[in-house]
Amino acid sequence: MILCADIGGSFIDFAVASPDGHLTHRQAAPTPVADLDSFVGILADLCAPWPGVPLHIAIAGVENPATGVVHAANIPCLATTDLSRLLSVKTGRTVLIANDADCFALAEARFGVARGHSNVFGIILGTGVGGGHVIDGRIVQGLGGVTGEWGHGPFIIPPPRVPAGMDLSAVIPSFRCGCGQTGCLDTIAGARALERLHVWAGGAPADSRAILSAWERKDAQASRTMDFYLGYLSSALALVINVTGCTVIPVGGGLGNSAALVRAVDLAVRERILVKEPGVLVKQAVLARDAGLLGAACLVAVHDKGAER
């Protein structure tokens, strides 16, 4: 039995997980983003009925494996905090923490659409773009705790020679990213970014669901937008496949709810990878809002395999 919490900037989703992936005693509480004492207190209260039972956390942020410090942009009270150690002292239990996209990938590998695959790269197409890499049931942990962030790093690169007076923004959707760089996939591939891309491509302002719906109806302007979207996204994802060798890519997040979009991404990706795989590589995730909790619960297996800091 593992206590698990999926912590975002708005709510804490809490449950008790059994080894077979069954969740019970599920409840939610608002996330106290600005008050560390309240943040710790809520988690302590949620865990209180199960003294000594380990707590595993999926969080919208990153824990530095060298220092234990958690960086979560939407939860400023955690800045400079070794959260796992603090919670362990306050609650008298083992506490493990991982990024929520990593937990998503781990859950889909253990219980979901990627079950049976040893090399899994899970992607989130939500408000932004995220991901996690799992090999043999273990999250691949990178520099500073960061792995799977395929949405960042300038991918949309301008040509080496730009004619004088040429407005690059008119021909290349190269936008400033929240990470501080310009040209990241995250600037055009998440839901809000797709809306920006649609306007850039000549469309009227519309939300992402309306754009996808129009595209499925073969609307000319939406199709133009999605040609850009699928071209850039599938190229980036093909690079991920070529580098990692993953054999399946579960897709979560709001945009991942579109079966038509996931099918289109899969077809576009398989045209661009080195090994021309006839089977489906990019698949809709199946665990929905349970993925963060179930992935967090699986962290015990990860740490049993030597991932402890």
From TrEMBL:
Entries under Pfam families matching the protein = ROK
The protein's matches in PANTHER family, at most eight in alphabetical order, are given as: BIFUNCTIONAL UDP-N-ACETYLGLUCOSAMINE 2-EPIMERASE_N-ACETYLMANNOSAMINE KINASE, ROK (REPRESSOR, ORF, KINASE) FAMILY
Which domain of life does this protein belong to?
Bacteria
Q: What is this protein called?
A: ROK family protein
Originating organism: Acetobacter fallax
Q: Which InterPro entries match?
A: ATPase_NBD, ROK
Spell out the family assignment given in the record's similarity comment: Belongs to the ROK (NagC/XylR) family.
Signal sequence bounds: none
Q: Please name the taxonomic classification of the source.
A: Bacteria, Pseudomonadati, Pseudomonadota, Alphaproteobacteria, Acetobacterales
